[in-house]
Amino acid sequence: MSRLRRVACWASPLLVVAALCAALVSPANAQPIADHNGLTSAQQVKLDHARVEAHADLRFGTEPLAAVRAAAEAAVPEAACEISVDAAVALSIAMTWPETSPSGQAPSPMTLSRYDTQPTLADPEGRAEGLWFHPGIGMWQMDSAGLGSDYTAAEAMNVEYTAGRVVPGIVASYCNSLGGGASEPAARRAAWQPWVACWQGACEDTYQRALAGVLTDDTVTNLGGAESRECEIGGATVDCVFVDPAAAQGANWWAAPGGGRSPIAAPFYVWRVTDGDSVTEIRYWLGADSGAATDVQAARPFGGNARDSLTWTAGPGLCDQTAGRGDC
Predict the structure, then answer these.
(1) Would residue 222 count as lying in a domain?
(2) From the CB of residue 212, how many other CB atoms can be counted at a distance below 10 Å?
(3) Is the separation of the CB atoms in 67 and 222 below 8 Å?
(4) What does the CA dihedral 88, 90, 92, 97 come to, rounded to 10 degrees?
(5) In which domain, by residue range, is 276 found?
(6) How far apart are CA 103 and CA 281, in angstroms?
(7) Cβ atoms 250, 108 nearer than 8 A
(8) Measured between alpha carbons, how far is 106 from 252 in angstroms, rounded to an integer?
(9) Which has more pLDDT, 38 or 121?
């Protein structure tokens, strides 16, 4: 069982890590036709499940909270308004529960979006149901259509890395609204606007509760259960990360086959490929993991929205040198 302890946000240890990310389904990237309320069906489902029960404790991973705290301590001295580090931490994590963990459990840094159902996210040859490319990644749901466009899935999961983008972005948005004459609650709403789950007040509730203190969960690490590996592919060795939804730490409702509207990806490897100025995210499925007759990989160019920029091919063979599996 996890070891939990109640702390105020300001009691977290320090780490150092450095604009804002897109929500799971944001106005900029939502594809389905809106209903009579002006919301897509995916947005309505998210809003219907956004509020955390009043009696539920708010939990957050110990390592992730430390990373957020460190990013807030770096951002607050540069902020264009007066805001405490404690408020910056609460402001930056308030949306993670409505977005990814309405139970109040520690949001999982591994979270894979389950509300995008565009057929372009699936392997066009239909080699296995688990060959599915989730565009929203992590507790902040960094989206390939937003500021997650220049992150691999592994980077978007890594809280020590992403906190350095999310926290200063949230603080800057909040301060800009205050500078424009908004009240503090209105400025918070403006900072959370990219996250659909915040649209009807759920994040103000979790903000106030997080400001008072959260339970920390030592079992939730900065990668949320994803594992750093060393992979050999095409004769080259690359640093890769293995993502197995079944190993997700923290809230893992989304990892179940019925945990969302989309399929759930089979376990996959992910890394980036750099060729001059061109950077590509590769997600790679071993046939043994997906059930397909061959390995399969999907490539997304950095800057490309996964909904219309994926290239799927048979995999050339991958050896997980760390675990000794695959084409070794």
Answers:
(1) no
(2) 13
(3) yes
(4) 180
(5) 227-323
(6) 32
(7) yes
(8) 10
(9) 121
